Amino acid sequence: MRRLILIFAALPLFHCRQAPAPPTGLVTDNAMVVSARKEASEIGVAIMQNGGNAFDAMVGTELALAVAYPFAGNLGGGGFMVYRMNNGDVGALDYREKAPLAAHKDMYLDSLGNVIPGMSTIGATSVGVPGTIAGIFEVHEKFGALPIEDIIARVIELVDQGVEVTEKQSRRLDAYWDQIVEVNGDQTLFYNKCMPGDTLRYPALANTLQRIAKNGRDEFYKGETAKILSRFIQEKGGFVTEEDLARYEAKWRQPIIFRYKDLKIISMSPPSSGGVTINQIFKMIEPYDIGQYHHNSAEAVQLFTEAARRAYADRNYYLGDPDFVDIPLDVLLSREYVKGRMESFSFNEATTSSDIERGTVEILESSETTHYSIVDAEGNAVSVTTTLNGAYGSKLYCDELGFFLNNEMDDFSAKTGVPNMFGLTGAEANSIAAEKRMLSSMTPTIVEKDDRLWLVVGTPGGSTIITAVAQTILNVYEFDMSMQEAVNAARFHHQWLPDNIRFEPEGFSEELKQQLKSKGYRINEGRNGFIGMVDAIRVLEDGRLEGGADKRGDDTAVGF
Ligand code: DON
């Protein structure tokens, strides 16, 4: 009997995957949009009900978020889209902001070579050349089925109706009001009311959208809007000129595609670090069969943390705009290299980040972006993350045009080794140069299982985006959760530097933290807000769709 027990104890604990978890989120038969606001999801769905496809819905949802979720939805920012057609074709669009022509490596440094506080984070000096309008027109031109004027008309209707301020939104508006006034003065036309239940209206935005609907993409980059926008940014002391706008182009990119067990994961390529970094994380954890441990157990947290630590160290050193730097992707993503990186990992003791690379950093500010996932009735899938970078971006609001401008310039590394507002340190690869795109962490992702569409997933959260997306996929695949459970589950984060694990406030016991501390892990006790707001869709075995709308926000799944 004892021998039998010993044999069983010695058997490797291979995780036997259970039947897929029954859905707990909204389930629909045909199509779905999950986004940060009900109004935006509804517009996307209405477009699909009226004969539009997932790409038409993308255009409508993107613009509707600028209205209903000005915190991050935007005309003055940029983003990334990863898509998968129902025939299996995949691709990615980069409509990331870029540095203006006047930008240069030391533009945020004083005469002593120190980073000037605030210059890359608040006000006109932090604004990069916006990419969103170029992005939606590019998507529409390639894949759209409905006239773009009809899509924009729906958004203008929403602007005219106004958007009801939710409780959560009102709290955020309050939190950033002082900064908005500091940048724009107290006569700003944005935000005249902010109590829950009040209505936000932006008449100027309706006019801007009308001009764009009539004159097309060039209205924003070469027309009256371009003139108003560049004049406004320059009057406020920023760098974006008419020429910068005229030269902006969105770019189609090859997505990062890799296998994890029997999944095929398709994610965003540079200038986002998202796809490369989750690729490394998945490759690093694959040999350890993380599913044999409990979800968020000490072992699972350790394994994931050590992979993230190593992947972020590479991210910060090697990654930048591929049009400006050579990224050794072949090496970084090879199984051999990745395996070598994990050779120093042991369950007995934490690796320290200084053993991987050096540096000391502190995270300064938290802020927002937004993600939405779409599947249409034909099975085409779109995964988009879009951002102003900080909450309300640079806080600079153009009264005449009715939208906020990004502070994306802070995603560059202003000085090697000095952390940006997400505590990310960068190196030469992500230094500032004219017309270069700043490195991003946005990770819009699509996952195939058995060659069929399975998940569409992404999130905001700055540097935590990559780990939140990876954990959501693992939650469904390895820990047998439904889409909604996977999105709601408690998350944690490690990004190499600062060398500590950040846990969400709920879901991690003191005992777990003590256990990790005893192995040498440092825990970030000071910073324990939410990590990400994941909006995702799972295709169930019978072909129906399950939405995962993050309970952390006002996020809503809508479908039919
Ligand atoms: O591109 C990036 O990585 C950042 N600008 C994203 C910002 C973000 O997610 C803010 N949300 N919390």
Automatic annotation (TrEMBL):
One annotated GO molecular function:
glutathione hydrolase activity
Q: Does the keyword S-adenosyl-L-methionine apply?
A: no
Q: Report which reactions are catalysed by this protein.
A: an S-substituted glutathione + H2O = an S-substituted L-cysteinylglycine + L-glutamate; glutathione + H2O = L-cysteinylglycine + L-glutamate; an N-terminal (5-L-glutamyl)-[peptide] + an alpha-amino acid = 5-L-glutamyl amino acid + an N-terminal L-alpha-aminoacyl-[peptide]
The record's section on InterPro entries has: GGT_bact, GGT_CS, GGT_lsub, GGT_peptidase, GGT_ssub_C, Ntn_hydrolases_N
- Which of this chain's residues are annotated to bind L-glutamate? R96, T387, L388, N389, D411, S440, S441, G462
Post-translational modification remark: Cleaved by autocatalysis into a large and a small subunit.
Swiss-Prot/TrEMBL keywords: Acyltransferase, Glutathione biosynthesis, Hydrolase, Signal, Transferase, Zymogen
GO BP annotation list: glutathione biosynthetic process; glutathione catabolic process
Q: Where is the active site?
A: T369 (nucleophile)
Q: One Pfam family for this entry, by name?
A: G_glu_transpept
UniProt EC number = 2.3.2.2, 3.4.19.13
Pathway, per record: Sulfur metabolism; glutathione metabolism
Q: Which Gene3D superfamilies match?
A: 1.10.246.130, 3.60.20.40
Position of the signal peptide: 1-21
For this protein, the record's PANTHER family field holds:
GLUTATHIONE HYDROLASE, GLUTATHIONE HYDROLASE PROENZYME
Q: Describe the protein's quaternary organization and the partners it interacts with.
A: This enzyme consists of two polypeptide chains, which are synthesized in precursor form from a single polypeptide.
What the record says about family reads: Belongs to the gamma-glutamyltransferase family.
Designated name of the protein: Glutathione hydrolase proenzyme
Source species taxonomy: Bacteria, Pseudomonadati, Bacteroidota, Flavobacteriia, Flavobacteriales
Q: Which gene encodes it?
A: ggt
